[in-house]
Amino acid sequence: MNQTPSRLALRRLLIIIAVAAGFIIFSYGWTVTEINLARPQEPIRQQNVGNALRELLSPNVFEQDYSIINATTPIVMNCPADGSPPAEAPQQTGDQPYIIVTPTCARSGETVTVQGYNFYPDSLARINWIDNSGERRIRQVAGVEGDNFITEGDGTFTVQIEVPRIRGSADQTHAVEAQGRFPVGLPRLSNTTGLVIEKMIETIFLALIATSISILPSAILSFFAAHNLMRPVRMSLGNLLMSIVLLPVGWVIGTRLLAPLATLGANLVSGAGLTTASGAALLLLFGAVTSSRAATTATIENGGRVRAALNTLLVTLVFIFAFGLIGGLGILVGRLFDTGVLGYVSNFVGTVGELMRLTIPLIAGIAGAFALSSVGTSLTLDGLKKLDTTSAHVLGGVLGAIAGAIVMALVGLIGMQAAWLGLLPPFAAASLASGLLPGLYRRLTGTTPRTANRSIVTALSWIGSIAAFVLTAALLRVDQAVIAGTLPSQEPAVNLLGMGIPLYIAETLLIGAVLGGIMGALSGTKAAFPLGEILYNITRTVLNALRSIEPLIMGLVFVIWVGIGPFAGVLALTLHSIASLGKLYSEQIESIDTGPIEALQSTGANWIQTIMYAVVPQIIPPYIAFTMYRWDINVRMSTIIGFVGGGGVGFLLQQQINLLRYRDAGVAVLAIAIVVSILDYASASIRERVI
Amino acid sequence: MLVIENLTKIYDNGFKALDRINLEIPEGQFVSIIGLSGSGKSTLLRCINRLIDPTEGRIVWRGVDITAATDDELRQIRRRIGMIFQQFNLVRRSSVITNVMSGRLGYVNPMFSLVNYFPRAEKERALAALERVGIPEKAYVRASSLSGGQQQRVGIARALMQNPELMLADEPVASLDPATSHSVMKYLELLNKEDGITILCSLHFLSLARAYSDRVIALKDGRLEFDGLPGEIDNDRFKQIYGEDAVEVEIH
Which CATH architecture has domain A64-189? Predict the structure, then answer.
């Protein structure tokens, strides 16, 4: 670049302006955060913080038994005006401890001297004031911090206390009590320490369970969030639309036919048919595995495809039956033991079995949907390829309309749950419509994506998106929902294939059908659809959104759902860990050496095999490292998740702080510091060793 | 017979890597592909097993149109086309034998392969392949602990597991020293002579092409610049392929 003097001067000026602007912004921040030097200098605040810190730094870890001796002497409040003799101090003799208070009568706020004799030498003592109702209050001794002072070496002491201000106490006779304490026996861990240790164990396991539950979901999600893996995943639009159209059909079949099969499996085990059931399952499994072997070697013509399709169905049946069997087995094991180590195991396995049994309809639906859609796609593959151009576009329009309706109806189902979720359907419509005008433009000008004018295409795509957003938002009355928080009516209003559906769903469905139909007709069934790119974007968005919500806030919601306790904390930390581990894992996938992927693809390995042999060996070490790191973070987070009721040591800590029991709080703080630093060190050294 | 008709590849950024390439390669030939960096050698090789999808044109191998194959068909075709790479593309953390056996994934039961189970026969085949490339003793060490030449031989062994009938070699010796280069090229020659495998090998050094191949193809800016016998490349042709300023460097 040509550095003329004027240009240089301009540059310098810009830098000065930038620095000045930065300075102003920083100063504004100084004001906004109320940085104030006067307040910390106020004596009362300094004294308070000093006390709190002192107590925090004197954690109540140990305690010890004391032998306690008392001596009491009466004192008259307000010396009588006539100067009559004050109450007589009881005569003390021998080696019994006794105290003398001078003067023997005093007004509130006056200072009296207490002399004690025959107390434990060089040990703790304190002065209590006992009013005429017998209530004790500790009197601080002048010149000593805290409640206790130390007696002299000969067992005597002389201290001064202030007479407490007690309303209406004039002329009453109160008493001064001196209490000497002497430690006996060995020091032991205090009750607080016991409680803190118990809660700390809960904390560590809370973090461990949350981390370990999150490993599998985030590992699966990480593949979808890895750009290098997803970008090449393309599917012909025809196949994609076909599979979307078949998804709900498969769902219905799955929940109606597969779910009873799984339930049968679950019930068989719980009953007497355990042997029969597992025998049948083994046979089915054997059949599936042999048949899958045959499918790969068979020449892939239509006959091969039918076999592959049958194989998929068989595998689905086996899977869902085995799912039910395992669930039933878990429930059975759950009933076996009640106590001891086996009790824990049986409780765990039983809960997992129960969970599996509860999710049977869901899993069956998903399995049915994916099985049918995969079979349908593979059987129609050849047919779709042979279509001529016109029928490809017509079929694209028809399938596009159905698929668009299905997708948008699903989005609408989410959108009608909360007012601001109502923004989802307009966004979905906008992204559906983004390719609409560019597609039309290319069709009219006869250009291809490569030759079309880029800026026109971009502009058209924005115009289409915004128009679709605005129209959808207007039709669905999103403005009302967003401003007033009104939800669309859930009442069935429209009859579709014998099902009553709310008007809102009917509207989203219609929008989807129109947009999807136009898009499908424009692109035709043979267009390549960037499925991977879209899955990647959706996964990334969801992960980022989840990650931006602090576990404490998630904890608040889960406490409402499952009640106060560590379970809520586990759920909150799990959800957050899934999001952040998913992101960390996917970044590891993005940084792998892609050479082996290419090499394995070139050998004819399928997609899953390529992942298993080229990707997995490369990512296992960083996955272990990041999981350790996450556990470390989760332990730290679980120490405070208790503040919102999520269980663990935080719950205890919050109680202690609220009750101003800083010495007890100190124990919790100390325990957190010890555990966190040990884990920090351990996870760092393990990470170092693995990478 | 491998027939390439009118093959064109334009990348998404508009770069034209291949421009209407027409070739016929009979069975059993050892063909070298030479040309400057960026002349389209790698793209041509990757179009043949469709690691890269060509923009236009057809590739027909033994009567089967590779460019029109579906995913399933493509896997069947790829099983019989071996490929070795400049950077070897081994999984460095895995053992040598796992790397070699991964060349067999297209043949074995996909369900068993996912739990890392290979039948005994496959394991023996892998050991035999390693024996053939002269490093049977390295079977159970990590791939990353091998030297460059040894890693490339593992790459060849992995390709051998496919029982290939066609071998694509993308600058197989560009990361190796001259002595090792010759040993790797000799293994390729052996596969060509003994097993009758057709070999397409892109090379930087004309001297290697002259020493090992039956036929030389030269690419320049994505176009076919020369197709003939190695001996036909004289100084003029050389300058035509590599540019006026180029001087031939010998590798011995």
Answer: Sandwich (2.60)
